[in-house]
Amino acid sequence: MALSCHRQTGACRPAARSSRRAAPRPSTAVVAATASAVPASKLIDGKGIAETIRSEIAKEVAVMKQQHGLTPGLAVVLVGSRKDSETYVRSKKKACAEVGFDSYGSDLPADVSEEEVLKVVEAYNADPRVHGILVQLPLPKHISEKRILDAISIEKDVDGFHPLNIGSLAMRGRDPLFVPCTPKGCIELLERCKVPISGRKACVIGRSNIVGMPAALLLQRRDATVTMVHSKTPDGQRICAEADIVIAACGVAEMVTGDWIKPGAVVIDVGINAKDDPTAKKGYRLVGDVEFESAAAKASLITPVPGGVGPMTIAMLLQNTLESARRAVTGEKVAGH
Ligand code: GUN
């Protein structure tokens, strides 16, 4: 079942470990820590953890090819030419190649009709080489996201966005076939860092279908007491400041400052925003939804941006696709879900 994202061992903070080597090549986490004066021991090294997961996946893919002659396949549908979406799709295809997956791509023009997109999805639904289908969001306004997501076979819904998968995630006693990748990555980081979730207070900031809502459901399934804070919540800061675990996914650069963080809390920052910075080579730098320095001063553990949640999203997509391919190997019946 998808929720048993197999708990792999893996260091929470490889950065701290690498500093004990004779001639350490600093990881991103160490660099970030040096630049921001935040101790490396506080940083959750998502980049390192995602690398560990990807190498585990690559090993399993090699065995699957050799023993069963099966190569996991991911189909990625991109509509239009949004620069951010193009970048994400490129990274996803590159990650597929690196672990030995086949990837299939359909790049459709921004003015493609909804019916054409549906035809593409149907073709991938019927293609046995394809174990996972991902339609990059957002879609152009004239295309119904609802219709497209509903059309993806739930057995290939590696994004976990199909209402049947989300519905199963929300219900006690049911297990979705797939869990959305970014929230799954957040939980994986908490688990690998051995952060207790059961019985803890968690605050999720943001209520999007892609991150906030499924993140809250995943925390609740692990017996956290979850509060969701969103744009209409009066005094979100006060609520957040009571939480042991904070997942920030509001899409507002550096909104969550240190005043929002309870001393010792664990902070997972999902945001990725460009902030003007004349001192940076590109004229901007990436920041999260959390103001890193002030929040890190209060937190016991915190994800950096970049190098925190971002790499985990792709690792979880690969994990979901591999899980789907495993089901193809074992012939596991998933119908009836
Ligand atoms: N757009 C932003 N995040 C995601 C994601 O996780 N999956 C898809 N399909 N689109 C996205």
From TrEMBL:
InterPro entries: Aminoacid_DH-like_N_sf, NAD(P)-bd_dom_sf, THF_DH/CycHdrlase, THF_DH/CycHdrlase_cat_dom, THF_DH/CycHdrlase_CS, THF_DH/CycHdrlase_NAD-bd_dom. Residues 1-25 are annotated as: Disordered. It comes from Astrephomene gubernaculifera. The keyword Lyase does not apply. SUPFAM superfamilies: Aminoacid dehydrogenase-like, N-terminal domain, NAD(P)-binding Rossmann-fold domains. The lineage of its organism: Eukaryota, Viridiplantae, Chlorophyta, core chlorophytes, Chlorophyceae. HAMAP family: THF_DHG_CYH. One of its GO terms (molecular function) is methenyltetrahydrofolate cyclohydrolase activity. This is Methenyltetrahydrofolate cyclohydrolase. Pathway: One-carbon metabolism; tetrahydrofolate interconversion. Residues 180-327 form the Tetrahydrofolate dehydrogenase/cyclohydrolase NAD(P)-binding domain. PROSITE patterns: THF_DHG_CYH_1, THF_DHG_CYH_2. It catalyses: (6R)-5,10-methylene-5,6,7,8-tetrahydrofolate + NADP(+) = (6R)-5,10-methenyltetrahydrofolate + NADPH; (6R)-5,10-methenyltetrahydrofolate + H2O = (6R)-10-formyltetrahydrofolate + H(+). The keyword Ribosomal protein does not apply.
